[in-house]
Amino acid sequence: MENNEKMKEYVLKKAHDNNIKFIRLWFTDVQGFLKSFDITVEELEGALSEGMGFDGSSVEGYSRIEESDVMAVPDPNTFQIFPHNSDGNGVARMFCDILESDGSHFEGDPRWVLKRTLKKAKEMGYTFYVGPELEYFYFKSDNGIPETLDKGGYFDLTTLDVAKDLRRDTVIFLEAMGIGVEFSHHEVAPSQHEIDLRYTDALTMADSAMTYRIIVKEIAAKHGVYATFMPKPIFGENGNGMHVHQSLFNGNQNTFYDPKDKYNLSQTAKYYIAGLLKHCKELVAVTNQWVNSYKRLVPGYEAPVYISWARKNRSTLIRVPGYKPGKETSTRVEFRCPDPACNPYIAFSVMLAAGLEGIKNKYVLPEPVEENIFKMDKKRREEAGIETLPDNLREAVNYMESSSLVRETLGDHIFYKFIANKRIEWDRYKTHVSDYELNSYLSIL
Length: 445
Description:
Blueprint: H1 2-17, E1 20-28, E2 34-40, H2 44-50, E3 52-55, E4 69-74, E5 80-81, E6 90-100, H3 110-123, E7 127-139, H4 164-176, E8 181-186, E9 192-197, E10 200-201, H5 202-222, E11 226-228, E12 242-250, E13 253-254, H6 267-287, H7 293-296, E14 306-310, E15 316-319, E16 333-335, H8 344-361, H9 378-383, E17 387-388, H10 393-401, H11 404-431, H12 435-441
Parallel strand pairs: 1-6, 14-15
Antiparallel strand pairs: 1-2, 3-4, 4-6, 5-6, 7-9, 7-10, 7-11, 7-12, 8-9, 12-13, 12-16, 14-17, 15-16
């Protein structure tokens, strides 16, 4: 409590010293859309102490109309100043925890779900670290026709990568806000890019991922183009993924590393991977929550659909990047199916919960599959016992609905709100008549 009071004092002083006039208070709805309202610096002290009330019934997946009042309480640890304020009225942002009017945590707050899951990990002796790789496209506009800016490919530079200035400006903006960046580059598909954030604890990273998505879009808009994290915007090209590198630490020790193991993986890491493999069908509706997500999760475009793990093989769902001598702390597990249009708070939560379940119940990890699964026929995959992820949103939601693990992790409020929302999305999608159907059938039927 004393440390929290010190942080509040620090925020008030920093706001004053930097001529901050407006503070954007941020939180997300159940689907991960960023919500925001501004307060002036004069209201900041009151907001930090008591929160700011708003109508939760107006936010997707929050409150019913008869129980709508909730409080947004800024987290002083998330205070960051936006760079480039030319009018002298500085702007900062803070993420909020959402509370009920009686001061209890609001069950519909995705950030609270992650905090709750991280507490369970801490009780087992672990701190959860993640490093997501969020891919996105630059298009000329958002008018529904994906016109690319270039024809470049993986790591291309020279004149093919006309968006390098956009990436550079984005990286500078992110680092000015205290968000560490490892590197950025052109991705495989035309006009596709990636900026990798330096790994950190999961709560900080969830906040950073939300900040990242809005900054990528804002910088693109300033350059007169449009950025999208849509999982599969272009037919025939790779989609946008969000491979999530994850590890569990105990203090400064990476509990996933074991120098005596042939894979340099501890038993804890093996249990964790086994947990992800066992529960992945149940949680994929969260990590890949849109109808369009499953247009990416198809064989042939580097997207992982086969439930298996490996060290070097990128056709598997889980990859363990190679160990480098002296880099024990970098031992990690890469979960490859999520896409960047998920809600990172609940996505990180269900992945962690699955891994912890593997540790608690000592799940047995099968042998790795180093053979290219994309080149296996169905019979060979069946012989190897390799199953696949759900291939559409409806199937994924059905798996999720039957999962006690996901329900316990999300809590009943978000669990049922999320499922209801996704069923509405599926119903709208299945009744839609697409261009494919018109082009294929109208002239012949």
